[in-house]
Queue: 2 jobs
Job 1
Amino acid sequence: MSALILHGGAGARRSKNYDREIVHMRDVVEAMKVRLDRGEAALDVAVEAVVMLEESGLYVAGRGSSPNLDGDYELDASIMDGPARRPGSVAALKGFKSPVRAARAVLDHTPHVMLVGDGACQFAAAQGLETIADPEPWFTRAGQGEDNHPPGTLAHGTVGCCVLDNQGRLAAATSTGGVFGKMPGRVGDTPILGAGTWADHRAAASGAGQGEYFMRVAATAQVSWRMAMGASLTDAAQAVIDEIGELGGDGGLIALDAQGNIADPFNSQGMKRAWLTTGGEIGVDVFGR
């Protein structure tokens, strides 16, 4: 029994056409279904799904990221392997094509949870991760014009994936270029375990929204904590988004439990997402519930 759910960000607005993203998200799910069917581990599948989302240039992560106020691209990512709660994370990474691969390298090749800034870049280089020769032709700035926030607010975009493999293991991965027009050095929820990404034996979750609010409520870990107190996955995930909304934030999250149940609440106009059920059905949506 395997399942997954992914997201391409909660900044969608109804005035924009998402046909390309819908086709691409379905393609990613279909590719990951092949991997799951042949027995690959949840963590490997979650990372590879996010790599595909980063490489597409269609979302505010990887190639689709926007620069900060100094014109630099500082990218964040994290992953978490549920069974052992093993994480890896990078923040303010510059000059590398796949932040989520850098996060995986932190998990695999260091005793640490997170590397940031110059240290993260030096480590990624030592690991031989693929660099960006020239930022301007590489980055597509796909998210420009997507957010539905007035100037001066936290307009956002992220990608993520939660996976349950056929051995019952859960994992999550998240990657982002951060909010638009961010200050240099700004780090949001995406690389913070328990805020933007979480996976344990109960649930996996990935956030998509105004990261400052997700950090204030420990959004993704809170899903599992609420389940430990008896809430269903659906109720737990919705309660987290409701709490973020009460604080004035917006966004959404995707979550998956050990039984393959899926949740995807959001309070923004839309959230790009796609999923694979335990019965093998694939779905894609942006604005529906």
Job 2
Amino acid sequence: MEKATIVLEGGATRGVFTAGLLDYLMEQEVAFSNVIGVSAGACNAVDYVSKQIGRTRDCMIHSEKELNYYYGIREGLKEKSLMNMDMMFDKYPNELIPFDYDTYYASDSCCEIVTTNCNNGKAEYMSETAGDGAKLLKMVRASSSMPLICPMVEIDGIPYLDGGLADSIPIQRAMEYGNEKIVVILTQNPGYRKSRPSNSMVRLFRHAYKNRPELVHTILRRSYVYNETIRKIQQLEQEGKIYVIRPQVPVVSRLERNTDTLMNFYHHGYQLMEKEYDSMMKYLKR
């Protein structure tokens, strides 16, 4: 157990890159005292804490029809969701690709899942330590529910969406833990900056969430906040205060479905962690 924090950015199917990295770390039996995951990073986070090598990969990369979690157009319109979230956060963990609740709850790692409160537009950092597996999965589901594409997820009477809306890379939260060492796993290439939403997307967000002005405000400021966070991460990295790993090949699209493309990106994450391992461990131990 390394007394350090690992931060896992989201990015939907780009999360297979992170899955490769974490699978290598699990093979080396490296655990962090604190884990923070956002969106797809939250899915990776819980599988990392439950020590399930390959689980996130298998959930994201498959060709079997019975594992498909994308709705067709007709069913998607009916369900008001592009993806079958019940499949991903109920049938997968409880039937098809079982989640190891016992190992998760026995872990000494503190795992936090970032969500966005739809009432006030602010980030919330959730953890579930009482053994309520259903609530844990609901938190991960909320963190992974992209705006417009997925419905809100209600937890204790409050609606939530994708944690990346309010805090895509929770470096400030990680620093608040007080751990001297922080490892950040990004899912975008070096130099990436998030673009402002187009005028048509701005109108769409304002219409879709017209009764939630604070949420719309958060969504429309997301690119600015993200880019400022990247600037801060670069500064901390240059000062040697944090250790950052990013993809070194072109990234996949956030809703990539080609299994070969996804598997290649997964292997890139695994191989990059293998390459960076000694350097990262040197940083953690100094």
